């Protein structure tokens, strides 16, 4: 506690908006700073948007960028917002980056924060910020109120829940 | 992870409602089960309402009831929703109850969950559930994205933020 | 005032939901009854769902069904929720149905009601219910706080606003 | 249609906020301009805040101010947001002000707009704006989806609904 937490934004459902002209979802700006204010969060947090992409369209180059920033940041507590569809892929990539002294937590949302009362985003951010402060160094996924080591989890694509791999 | 979390409801701003006839705030039922569903939480949680009171009106008998239930529950992870005004009083009471093997987290909200987009409750519940899973046994307050050992914290009554005692 | 208002639901953005598994919008049940309760509406209203379709996919047969129900209802005040993309097409169809004693108002939303605080749906329903009570018999579109006779209006597909035809 | 609508803000539950430090309701700024934007309203509207008071505390001098502004405005369509408790008192006062060419609509809310999804305010504003455009000159109260001539209505203080006087 007291150390700065680095938040990296990569997009995902968390930050999607509804375009009322086209009827499509798209990205504008991240909601994270506003969410932290609403959560009355007093942690020392630096928010940086790395990209705004649907995780199904995330490229190897995008993951290199994320890895590069995780290497470079001086913070030992890193929270990454990320689309849920390939969250485990990025988690695996980062786990192999040899970031041995850092606690890296990936989180996201199944319903955009902009969709108000139905979104799980605000809850997920609250639990992810908590876990990133006190979990041992390593790479984790935080969804559904739980944390999962990167190699012990999969997304159930039918239900949208994250499940422990046995 | 995997162990059941015991949630005890005591009321507080978190669960207050607006009575549109009288213009006053009051208690009806707790929102916690609905909040857990919205958060898509898959933790094993047992929710039990002990009381629904404004923490300024909480009596020594009320604290005995809370302590008694903390003793009795078989869970080692206990989350208590509580009004913020006397949260530290109850935390101190529980710390002296000799519940040495249990992690007890008190959390609350500055703005009622029922007031929609302005409430901090959903965020606080997310972080409190995370902290209660992995903090060492002890009594803690979780607010503003942070955890505080029970004897290292006070509420700033002018700003509504919880601050570390030096 | 005092006469029953007939509300016919046809779908449209107003009633769309977000499917968090597929990331697509879809229809489940209409929100209108819940909206009327939230609006504390004490009008005598009968709500009937005729279909749940995106108005871009509305067929001539669908419009026949709507016209048929407008003929059949004994109410002289008819409110139809409808997608905005072809609202004027259905309005024109109904205008030629020779429903000379009835006030028919079509309304909709640019943002789904389920998307919470950003939706215009609740406002539009309030103004549409007001207009349908007191406008002269005829077919109207109510959007953006205004009413437009069916043959004096077009949707600006770039901005999403309805504009008066000169 | 096309003529400017004059909106006068006087406060009332509609515009109340929750003070999270004191736990009391209070007034800050009116939400009306933001509400009109959310409603995607394209009417020509001038919004002017006359006062921000709980209508139980509205004085004869306050009503004189409201009456004076209703006289002075060049608009023939006047919408007044007002607390519900003494809405009929102000309506009666204005009815006796000899504003014979003006349509004056008073509306309000039972639940503050700031309380999100539970508020009736957005709906009431939608219907009040519709009624003020097309009702005959006179003084009206618009609540619960209905309009009431000023001398034909009372608030049921037990239920919060407005009822027609027989």
Structural description of this entry:
Four copies of one chain form a homotetramer. The first copy, chain A, is α/β, with parallel strands linked by helices. Helices cover 26% and strands 29% of the residues of chain A. Chain A has four helices and ten strands. The first copy, chain A, has helices at 32-38, 60-72, 87-95, 121-134, and strands at residues 5-11, 16-18, 25-27, 45-53, 77-81, 103-107, 138-143, 146-149, 153-155, 162-164. In chain A, the strands form three sheets. The first copy, chain A, has a six-stranded mixed β-sheet with strand order 4-1-5-6-7-8, with helices on both faces. Chain A has a two-stranded antiparallel ribbon with strand order 2-3. In chain A, β7 and β8 form a beta hairpin. The longest helix of chain A is centred in the last third of the chain and has 14 residues, at 121-134. Chain A is globular and about 45 Å long. The N and C termini of chain A lie far apart (32 Å). The B-D interface holds B 13, 18, 20-21, 23, 25, 110-112, 114-118, 157-160 and D 13, 18, 20-21, 23, 25, 110-112, 114-118, 157-160.
Structural topology:
The structure is a homotetramer of 166-residue chains.
Chain A: E1 5-11, E2 16-18, E3 25-27, H1 32-38, E4 45-53, H2 60-72, E5 77-81, H3 87-95, E6 103-107, H4 121-134, E7 138-143, E8 146-149, E9 153-155, E10 162-164
Parallel strand pairs in A: 1-4, 1-5, 5-6, 6-7
Antiparallel strand pairs in A: 2-3, 7-8, 9-10
